[in-house]
Amino acid sequence: MMNIAIICGGNSGEYEISMESAKVVKKYLDKDKYEAYPIVIRFDDWYYQDDKGDKHPIDKADFTLSLNGSTVRFDAVFNAIHGTPGEDGKFQAYLDLLKIPYTSCGVDTSALTFNKFFCNRFVSAFGITVARSISFLKGEHIDQSLIADQLGFPVFVKPAQSGSSVGISKVHNLDDLDAAFEIAFQEDERIIIEENIEGRELACGLLHDGKQLIILPLTEIISKKDFFDYEAKYTKGMADEITPADVSTEVEQDVKAISAMLYHEMNCKGFVRFDFILTESELYFLEVNTIPGISEASIMPQMAVSYGMKLSDFFDKSLEAIWQSH
Known about the structure:
By secondary structure, the chain is of the alpha+beta class. The chain has helices at residues 15-28, 90-98, 107-114, 116-124, 144-151, 177-185, 230-234, 249-265, 299-307, 311-325, and strands spanning 2-9, 34-42, 45-49, 55-59, 64-67, 70-72, 76-79, 129-130, 133-137, 155-159, 169-171, 190-195, 200-208, 213-215, 219-223, 239-242, 271-278, 283-289. The model has no long low-confidence stretch (mean pLDDT 91).
């Protein structure tokens, strides 16, 4: 029986979503193979909460847990933290130092993919189309006329580093830019102002089980709001998620081929989701989620089920990949 720490929580606006993801992982992990311990990471407060609701602190020196007079050492970590410090590489660096294996991408990949500013430049170097954008650091003068001239309206104002659309605004005129800047700068020191691309939003999920790369069926996301924001993502009925997506064979092959290529070039591990916008003439890379939502209502589990894979098998393959690569 292996001890698995399911790390969850985190220090961002995605805390609640992460907690839900962890519950699903614990529910579906094979109980004959794994003893699962949800470990909440919230700033300096790290703890295991037992079934009675009692909190047991984690020893940060070696990531162990004292429980009932004995020490629990973890064979691996299932990373279910969306946002910092689980999706940006910080916690991975800590685990690397302790030589504890984990399910998600490593430090370099996580740091690159979580920063939209760096990630878009990496992706565009392969000739893949990304939206035109302008970026500013906090404290820099922002020439709003430049935004209007170069990008037009509407635009998206985004923190360079955030997930689940936290801190993102869709802005339709100059008057609303300042408020959007303020919201975005609450999440990160750098913001990106990005042109609006009208089209269909497509998601491609991939899972490496240690032997092969499994490419899951595509999902089309149709938001009932102005865009696929936090509310649309996590409120039932606010978006339609169609799996498999109703697209041509050519589009499906293109999306899957680009996703598989980027998965390889970015040195991704475990399960990852790539998002795109399809216009009448072009396929735009939107972003990559290295810790995508895995609640039962999330897109990635829907893809797995459509592929014919039970969630228990999906999570089992994620852990098996660790042992295959070591």
